[in-house]
Input
Amino acid sequence: MAKEYYTVSEIIGPLMLVENVEGAKYEELVEIELANGEVRNGRVLEVNYDKALVQLFQEPRGLDVDSVKVRFLGRGVEIGLSPDILGRVFDGQGKPIDDGPEIIPEIKRDINGSAINPYARDYPAEFIQTGFSTIDGLNTLVRGQKLPIFSGSGLPHNQMAAQIARQAKVLGKEERFAVVFAAMGITFGEANFFMDDFRRTGALERTVLFINLADDPAVERIATPRMALTVAEYLAFDMDMHVLVILTDMTNYCEALREVSAARKEIPGRRGYPGYLYTDLSMIYERAGRIKGKKGSITQIPVLTMPEDDKTHPIPDLTGYITEGQIVFSRSLHRKGIYPPVDVLQSLSRLKDKGIGEGKTREDHSDIFNQLFAAYARGLEARELQVILGEAALSDIDKIYFKFAEEFENRYIQQGEDEDRSITFTLDLGWELLSKIPRMELKRIRPEYLKKYLPKFLKEEKK
Amino acid sequence: MDKGRIIKVAGPLVIAENIENAKMFDVVEVGEQKLIGEIVELRENKAAVQVYEETSGLGVGDPIVSTGAPLSVELGPGLIESIFDGIQRPLDKIKEVAGDTITRGVRVDIIDREKKWEFKAVKSEGDEIEAGDILGEVDETVLVKHKIMVPYGIKGKIKKIKSGEFTVEEIIAVIEGEDGKEYKLSMLQKWPVRQGRPYTVKKPPIIPLITGQRVIDAFFPVAKGGTACVPGPFGSGKTVIQHQLAKWADADIIIYIGCGERGNEMTDVLQEFPELKDPRSGEPLMKRTVLIANTSNMPVAAREASVYTGVTIAEYFRDMGYSVAVMADSTSRWAEAMREMSGRLEEMPGEEGYPAYLSRRIAEFYERAGRVECLGKDTREGALTIIGAVSPPGGDLSDPVVQATLRVVQVFWSLEDKLAYRRHFPAINWLTSYTLYTDSFDEYYKKEIGSEWKEMIQKSMRILQEEAELEEIVRLVGLDALSPDNRLIMETARSIREDFLHQNAFHPVDTFTSFKKQFQMIDIILFFHSRAEKALKNKVSVGDISVLPIREDIAQAKFIDEKETNKIDELKKKIDEVFEKLEKESSNG
Output
């Protein structure tokens, strides 16, 4: 039986100081028993002589310094794992909240995980079809990648994330696929949307949900993504499943981290966020990937709302430095009623080159991508010119590009919330839009592909 | 007697008391698992230790013992083709022992102790030798002759030396020292990472490092033995540039330090480098490369050490007389690691929470670059080039790490996300970047490609600058308002940008351009320009010039194979013909 201490001397925000402690270990799990028998948890943040600084996982309400009993459990924070975990719903600390039975663990794992040896990693190269033209065609996602959505408040990032979870598949293969979903500080409405969506589409049984709502204690959410990723690692590397992890909203997570840091009176970095925010985020994001010799994979889609839509804010900024690209949302596209409002020019998938082309998507993918990109950029320039100087100032070719940009937004970017486009459809749609541009202008497509694909679409035009 | 014991644990920082024989920057073994740490502060009987492995599970009272030696790297045959973590533990061997993740307290040999190397002595018994003299050679890979040097501090006469097959620990030579001592030498040496390796004299750099990247070699070259930095926001292509340099730079040895960056990027290097062939030797690039990988999720203190580990290994190869290039991606993560440790030590912060010694540390690091005359009687020359990526928050160049770096480096490649959004790669801004080396290379240019090179580059740069000024006017009043001369400037500038500066790292031919071909490409663009200027005087309209199909041939020059570059020069005749035809038409019409 572990020793019990009644020596709590300070409780400040999410932190608690325990004195006269013997042998407390850094990162150790702590149980806190209230006078009424209620048990809460925390972990050791710092040990200093006989003092242990404990970070609470729940809110401090109701705690006092006199009657609270503290036990040090001699192990880190763990989560119990078993195949039965699929289809279950947990709170931010891993307790079931779906009226189902407790999980009887086959194994327990420390939620911090440990870093994958770069030598053991396998490079992500398998194309995932999400059914979105803006992702599949332009910012291709591959298995083992971490591709965040940079959104803003009020934008439909949740719809997109749910739709990706619903539609994502690898072509030509029947494989075991699972979704791990971690909600951090989102509203009941948002959480309900996801649950309903998963239930409606039958996805729930291959999904594990961790739900920490906006009115749940903020400190709880520091553990939430780590639990979700420990589950994901179990499913991927023990159970050979392909796991898609959705983390939403990382901004709330970072704010919780800032709260703890401020309570510890640490020297803040930019905008009050702790100096180790980069390291902390990387410990989450870098848990995506593939391992040589293992069948499963972890693909991450973190969602974050950029404060004031500012991409240079520390959270999106540091995230962008760690993740392999980003899907950026545009408020102006959203205002035009375009879903998903993906700002194509600012979005990027760093791993796309490895996941596209012959044998993966189609030989002409890369050229189509470059050409669409260039044409849309040109179209936007024409639009800008039109705004300043009026339509009369546009040259004939500018007018063509101007129209192209409109169509590109309305047909290529825009799609329905239940529309699951195949990659062939996306690529052909690209051809169709490009066929309205004079052939001379299509410099980024290799002549042999122009010859092979273009005529088909020109003919259709004439009919 | 008191044993050393831990009294405080806060993240990667551990405070301990009563460590026997504690000296600054000595390595200590922390806890029962003997985690590796380094003493960074001493206060009476208390020592602050930064621990290079995860510290969870450590507690007050756990033992801590000093090894009595500073943090060092092992040097000897077997370094090339390795992948190490920040404190030089081989990741491939860790995988064998510990599996797919990095576990704590793993101990593996840094350099293979079993492998036998063929040692060929070049000195013989009775020879007088001093530190730095080459005793013999080992063919480490097809590209690298590993030279076994007399360690620093030894001078005397060779008593015994033999060629043959040895492991790195076996004795290959016995030296009778001047001091009367007998030194038994193996091929394995150690050197503390925080101390630069000695050399005879440092010299100013005079030869450019040819990288095959046109914007760099032509406009902003870095010297062999020089320093350069690549700051830029995320998505602007820092890592691609670092990878391109590691692939194609004409250095003998490449040390690539992945400091606090993505795991998948290191995997990319690991998978790609053995496949890619060095354009000069035709051998796999891995055969001249050492990788240091301390990804962002690996312990933060080891990240701090990783750049020193890398540069010390680089100095060792420099001392053999090689040209070595170090790529550090990214020095911002290194600085952040310093900041984190400094914060835990509760030091008074400087700018943005970085420690006050930030700029000193950065300057010290870059100053380890240079062209040097190595120790040893044969006065051989080695060079160490350092190219550091910087990742400023939000791409903001006023960041303290960027500013401290710019004060010491000689070359600045300014990456811009605006260019990247326009898919202009490499996204190096030609107006804000600079190099301070151009004058040093006069001799080299004269000898290698012709003294007109410098003038051609200056002319091209002038055209680009004029374009930037003209663009302002165009934005206000439209292209039509420009004079024909100015419109030609705009056309040529576009050609320089799109046909020369723009380079596709993923195209098999375009990814590398030899210096000679670069010369030809600039030459043909400028030839077209001056021919067009002449045509304008002969009343040819600039509109007609801008739609000449021959311009497409100039644009395609970058895709011409290195073996067929004479095709570029042949274009000149065609250009002449085309213009003559135009001129005739315009004088007739």
